[in-house]
Design brief:
β1 and β2 form a beta hairpin. The protein is globular. α9 packs across α11. The N and C termini lie far apart (51 Å). It contains 14 helices and 15 strands. The protein has a 5-stranded mixed beta sheet, with helices on both faces. By secondary structure, it is of the alpha/beta class.
């Protein structure tokens, strides 16, 4: 049940029956506030369940897209009470409550109520990061199996390399510090000086401080708090206090795409081991949002939607736009592979079959393409999109072309106005490698 179709039907019903205004305001740790305004059906027994479903899924999307530790529900106290019970320590969204509260923002997630006319004012501040190409800079990207680093001089890559590492199983944060520092020193050897350092990595970063990241999952909790959270501030100090910025890798990918296209309103989607995303505003800036689209709902089935093993929620993006989706669709497609075979190897097998024209493998990609075609208009409810940057292992080869072809077909049939506005882009290998390095290096302004 695509979220875009469910919401379209709900909003049509709201228009027909007379809606009441509702706003959700999300406040982040720096005091910035995002406000989403909508309408709900009259809050009476006949509509209560529909309203609860609509607003709960809406808040779930907003929390993982924009982030927030305080949610103000403006317009309907009963909805605020309902959400307060769901997003609570003992509620159905206990994972989101704990993650957004204590883990990301260091305080309990709070849900408050007010009247619609007293909704908080929006205070969005796009981060003034990126597009600084002057001087001698280092850009790095930290992956699960390798760390990439490049020396950039006045916007040109003069050195780049990839070094294997295995950070996720390491218990001592010194391993992470030493590895990153080693890559920085290798790059610095090719520059007369270092004016600024910028980096990207999977996970959640707030003001260059590590809040959550799979790269550090082997580190015990107490050592994470004492050493990992401020890892990049420690490195900055060791490098003489030069401007030093680190953001989520999806943000840097979107920024690289925006710089290459010389345009804004870019949503980047990477379908790999998980689903990563990043966004560049129409004005060309990255935001302070989380953009963790792996955990936003795209399938509104009440029962039967695949469940994310981490958050325990059903119908969220990672199960539809990653190698997990490919693995999940093997059996329905009629492809039998050993259960113990790792997902990346299963993906390689499906890619090989697709290249050979195997109809079973092609059906997997057609299905993901249909998922994507219906998800794009859902994303467009929350982002202004002119350019959709699509990359990742799942998009490699014949299957990737088929995904985009089917997605385009869905858009043209169901959402023709949107199909005319959005352009798809798939970066080549050089653009991905060098573009990412340049974009990361461009994050900080010189002091």
């Amino acid at each position: 049940m695509p979220a875009s179709l469910w919401n379209r039907a709900y909003r049509a019903l709201t228009d027909a029956r007379g809606g009441q205004p509702l706003a959700l305001a999300l406040e982040r740790g720096d005091g910035s506030i995002s406000v989403f305004r909508t309408s709900i059906l009259p809050q009476d027994p006949a509509h209560a369940r529909l309203n609860e479903r609509y607003v709960e899924r809406l808040l779930k999307f907003l929390l993982w897209q924009r982030g927030g530790w305080r949610v103000t529900v403006a317009g309907e106290p009963a909805i605020a009470d309902y959400l307060g019970g769901v997003y609570a320590a003992g509620g159905a969204r206990a994972f989101d409550y704990e993650f957004m509260g204590e883990r990301v923002y260091g305080r309990p997630l709070a849900i408050e109520s007010t009247t619609f006319d007293r909704a908080p004012e929006e205070r969005e501040a796009a981060a003034p990061l990126g597009r600084h190409l002057d001087g001698c800079r280092i850009g790095f990207d930290l992956g699960a199996s390798d760390r990439k680093c490049a020396a950039v001089r006045d916007g040109q890559v003069v050195f780049s390399e990839e070094v294997p590492w295995n950070p996720s199983v390491q218990q001592d944060p010194q391993y992470h510090y030493d590895g990153i520092d080693d890559s920085l020193r290798r790059a610095a050897a090719h520059l007369p000086r270092v004016d600024a350092i910028g980096g990207s990595a999977a996970g959640v970063y707030v003001n260059s401080r590590v809040r959550v990241g799979s790269l550090y999952r082997g580190v015990p909790k107490e050592r994470f708090a004492s050493r990992v959270v401020g890892l990049f501030q420690e490195l900055q100090q060791a490098w003489g206090g030069v401007p030093f910025e680190v953001v989520n890798d999806g943000e840097v990918t979107a920024l690289a795409g925006s710089m290459a296209l010389q345009d804004g309103a870019v949503l980047g989607i990477a379908m790999g081991s998980s689903l990563a995303a990043g966004y560049v505003t129409p004005e060309g800036a990255i935001t302070g949002w989380l953009n963790e689209l792996a955990f936003v709902p795209v399938d509104y089935r009440a029962e039967g939607a695949p469940v994310d093993e981490w958050s325990g929620d059903g119908g969220v993006g990672v199960q539809y736009f990653s190698q997990q989706a490919v693995g999940r669709l093997l059996r329905p497609a009629g492809i039998e592979l050993p259960a113990e075979m790792p997902l990346p190897v299963k993906l390689e097998q499906v890619q090989k079959l697709a290249a050979e024209g195997d109809a079973r493998a092609l059906r997997i990609y057609e299905t993901i393409g249909a998922y994507f075609g219906y998800a794009i208009p859902h994303y467009a409810d929350f982002y202004e999109i002119r350019n959709l940057l699509v990359l990742g292992r799942v998009m490699t080869g014949t299957g990737g072309d088929l995904i985009l072809s089917v997605a385009n077909r869905v858009l043209k049939a169901e959402f023709p106005d949107l199909a005319e506005r959005i352009r798809f882009h798939i970066p080549d290998e050089k653009e991905k490698r060098h573009g990412q390095a340049i974009a990361a290096a461009s994050l900080p302004a010189k002091s």
